[in-house]
Q: What sequence folds into this?
């Protein structure tokens, strides 16, 4: 954040001009982050990648919210069970009332894909929120106090980071039990170290900025400087990482459900669980694996595209061009 220097207050001993330090400090502290965010939004509007990613994410969110209105059948309904035989499952277009065909249990695939979007959105958002809150708390404490507090927190974070994310999530979910809430906690816990390290690093970078020195010159306390000035300016990279992490959260949720850790009945409308039971039907009904796999890939792509566009818009190296 730049600080505009006020007019000189008088000559120095060397015959030059001096700057009123308090005036500089007040000028720096009055400059808020509004201009920065306006510039970010302007750059996003000019980025085609941001539009594509935002369109995919918006479509995913709308489908999830409007699932009761869009889905032809209820979430647990099995309207096509009478059409299933051990060697035959109707595919897309074969039955007019089931546009994308049926699954092994007689469920409408289109309805399950729509309801599965809601399940994936719920798990992705809640797990990312848990990881974001936990990571920000650790990063905030480490970046504010420093010293031995920072050392202890970062060493614990390093230990957690030494375990692959998915393996850690699988371990936590297996301990907590096979429930959707356990999946949310498992994915969120595996994301905590990422947010903690990112916020700490961003805060350490901000602490050496001019506006922090200005605040110290005015006599502001460490807590006020951190919460009013350092944290708001350091949170940008964390927001970007949150959008990118939503993509991995959707994939991780599908992976845990695929491994049987998501809970629920076999006919549960969830993309990962649909993949689990589709592997036994690949020979006669390959679309049961392709359709939820495409949904997972497109959703993750949308969050990734938007997150990368947001990262570029907030990157000072690209904003300076």
A:
């Amino acid at each position: 954040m730049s600080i505009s220097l006020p007019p000189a207050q008088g000559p120095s001993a060397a015959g030059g001009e001096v700057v009123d330090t308090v005036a500089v400090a007040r000028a720096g502290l009055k400059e808020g982050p509004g201009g920065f965010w306006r510039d970010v939004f302007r750059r996003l509007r000019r980025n085609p990648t941001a539009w594509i990613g935002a369109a995919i994410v918006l479509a995913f969110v709308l489908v999830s919210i409007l699932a009761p209105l869009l889905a032809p059948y209820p979430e647990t309904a099995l309207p096509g069970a009478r059409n299933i035989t051990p060697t035959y499952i109707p595919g897309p277009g074969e039955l007019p009332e089931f546009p994308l065909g049926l699954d092994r249990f007689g469920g409408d695939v289109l309805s399950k894909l729509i309801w599965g979007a809601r399940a994936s959105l719920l798990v992705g958002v809640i797990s990312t929120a848990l990881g974001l809150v936990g990571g920000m708390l650790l990063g905030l404490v480490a970046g504010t106090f420093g010293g031995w507090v920072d050392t202890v927190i970062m060493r614990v974070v390093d230990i957690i980071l030494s375990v692959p994310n998915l393996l850690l999530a699988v371990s936590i979910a297996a301990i907590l039990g096979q429930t959707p809430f356990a999946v949310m906690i498992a994915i969120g816990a595996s994301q905590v170290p990422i947010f903690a390290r990112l916020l700490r690093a961003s805060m350490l970078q901000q602490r050496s900025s001019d506006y922090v020195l200005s605040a110290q010159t005015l006599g502001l306390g460490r807590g006020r400087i951190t919460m009013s000035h350092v944290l708001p300016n350091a949170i940008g990279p964390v927001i970007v990482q949150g959008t990118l992490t939503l993509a991995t959260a959707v994939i991780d949720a599908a992976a845990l459900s695929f491994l049987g850790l998501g809970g629920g009945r076999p006919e549960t409308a969830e993309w990962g669980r649909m993949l689990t039971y589709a592997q036994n039907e690949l020979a006669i009904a390959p679309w049961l694996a392709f359709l939820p796999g495409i949904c997972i890939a497109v959703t993750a792509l949308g969050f990734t595209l938007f997150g990368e566009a947001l990262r570029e818009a907030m990157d000072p190296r690209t904003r300076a061009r």
Remarks:
- Residues 1-33 have pLDDT under 50 and may be disordered.
- Strands lie at 10-11, 17-18.
- The domain at 55-319 is CATH 1.10.3720.10 (MetI-like fold).
